[in-house]
Amino acid sequence: MDEETAAMAAMMGFGGFGTSKGQEVEGNDVGGAKTHKKRTWRQYMNRRGGFNRALDKI
């Protein structure tokens, strides 16, 4: 970048950005990730072996 573009970027606040990819970020250990468990289905009726028996293992 030339001097004029660098001065404009610094004036607008774009001067010192970097990346945090692969780095430890201080204060980031407070929260947790929300993970979703994949839903499984159970067939209650019209099963092989009849209706009145234990459900299949999930």
UniProtKB/TrEMBL annotation:
Biological process per Gene Ontology, one example term: RNA splicing
Gene Ontology terms: cellular component: precatalytic spliceosome
Localisation per UniProt entry: Nucleus
Keyword annotations from UniProtKB, A to Z: mRNA processing, mRNA splicing, Nucleus
Pfam families to which the protein is assigned, alphabetical: SNRNP27 (PF08648)
Annotated region described as Disordered, given as residue ranges: 18-39
Every U4/U6.U5 small nuclear ribonucleoprotein 27kDa protein domain range: 3-58
InterPro entries for this protein: SNRNP27
Purpose: May play a role in mRNA splicing.
Entry's family note: Belongs to the SNUT3 family.
Assembly behavior: Part of a tri-snRNP complex.
Protein name per Swiss-Prot or TrEMBL: U4/U6.U5 small nuclear ribonucleoprotein 27kDa protein domain-containing protein
